[in-house]
Amino acid sequence: MKLITKFFAFAILFSIAQKGYSQDPDFHVYLSFGQSNMEGYAKIEAQDKVGIDDRFQVLAAVDCPETGRKIGNWYTAVPPLCRCNTGLTPVDYFGRNLIANLPKKVKVGVINVAVGGCKIELFDKNKSAEYIATAPDWMKGMIKEYDGNPYARLVEMAKIAQKKGVIKGILLHQGESNTGDTLWPKKVKIVYDNLMKDLNLDPKKVPLLSGETVNEDQNGKCGSMNKIIATLPKTISNSYVISSKGCTVEPDFLHFNASGYRELGKRYAQKMLSLLGYQFSDKGISLRIQAPVGFDQLNADIPAGKIETITYESKTVGSIRKATVYTPPGFNKKKKYPVLYLLHGIGGDEKEWLNGGNPQIILDNLYAEGTIEHMIVVMPNGRAMKDDSAIGNIMAPDKVQAFATFEKDLLNDLIPFIEKKYPVLKDREHRAIAGLSMGGGQSLNFGLGNLDKFAWVGAFSAAPNTKIPKELLSDPEEAKEIKIALDFLWR
Fold this sequence. Notes:
The protein is an alpha/beta fold and 491 residues long.
C-alpha cells in the first residue's frame, strides 16, 4: 500500500501539463523471441482475425508478400505475427488483452522473432554462428529469413521501434530444445543482458516474461523443463514465469493448440498488466491499482534534478522558516515553470518526502520518459510555529493547531517568496497542492478553500483533519472548474 500511496501522490503531476516527444510514451513496445511455441504453431482460426483494435500493432520483422507487409513497418496486428507461414502465437492474445485493459490513449506494438526447434544459444550473439553451423537445413531456412542472424534482426527492429515508442517488456517462450539443461537460466540471462546493453534499456524497468512449456498436467513431453524455467527469477531478478497449467495442447504434446495459445497469451498479459500497475478485467475496464515496476528506482544514466534547502521570512509565525525545493533537470531561470506544493504527514518536516518518498527519483524517471512537463516542487514544513521540529508530542494541541496556521504562512509568506526567487507561473492553472496524511487534509482544506489559488488538489491517505463538507466546499458549482485528485487509501 505504501507504493500505491507513493505513486498516486505524483499522479496529480501528470495533469498539470504534458510535453510532446517524438518518442511516444503511450506507445508500449514488446519484444518476443523463442522457438516454435513463440512463432506460432496452431492454425489461425477465423475468430483470431477479427475484432483486432488498430491500437495493437506489429512491426514486420521479415518481408511478407502474401500479406503485403514489408520489414520495418508497422501494421495492425492481424496474425500471423511472426513470419508469413507461421500460426497463432501467445503474442496475439497478449496484445489483445493488454489493449482491452489499458487506457484508450495507449497503443501496443510487438516484434516477434522466433525460430522453431532452436536452442536458446541461437540468440546468444557470441555463440549463434557456431550454433547455426550445425543446425539442420530446415532450421537454416527459417534463420535465413532473418538474414542469418535472428538476434541481430530483433535488435534492428527494436531500434526502429524505439524511434516511435518505448520498450516496456520482453516475452520469451523457449526451452523445449534445452530440456534438462540446468544452465538454461544463465544462458537466457546472457541474451537478456545483451538486449539491455544493445538497446540501452534499464533492466529494472524492462521485465522478462518467460512462459512454461506444455505442462505435465497435459502430458507435456518437455514438461520437466518447467522446473528449470521456474528458477529463472533467481538468475534474472526482474523476470517472471508464466504458468502453462491447464493450457490445452496439440496431439504432439509439444505445442499448444489455438485455445491454449489464447489462454497463455492472456496470462502473459495479466502479469504484464500487474507490472504496469493495472488490474486485469475480463470486461476490459482500465483500472490502475499500483505503481509500475521501477517507478522509484534510481537511474544513474538519466539527467537528475537538484534539491536545495531555502529559508524564508514568515510574518505569520514571526520567524525564519525552512523549505526544500526540487528543480528539474536542465533547470533554466529564463523559463517559467508550474509549481507543486507537496505537504508531509504529521510526524514529518520539510525533509520528510526526501527521507521516505524519493520524489526526486520518481520525477527524474518521469521526465526521462517524457511523461510530464518539468516543474518546480516545494516541500515545506507544514507545522507553522516557531519551534516547528517534529519532536516531542507531535499530537500536542499547539502543534496540531500549527498545521491549520500553515494556511496563512503558505498563502501570505511562502508562495510570494517562491514566486520572487524562482521562475514560476503565477496563475492558478499552474499551481498545485498535494499532501500525504496530515498534509492530505491540509491540501483539501487549503486547496478547496482557495480555488482562486489552486487548480489542482491531491489528497493521499488524508488524515481526518479536514473541515466538514459544508465548510470545505460551500459552493460545489464553483469547484466544478477545479481538477481534484483524491485517494483515500490508508497505509
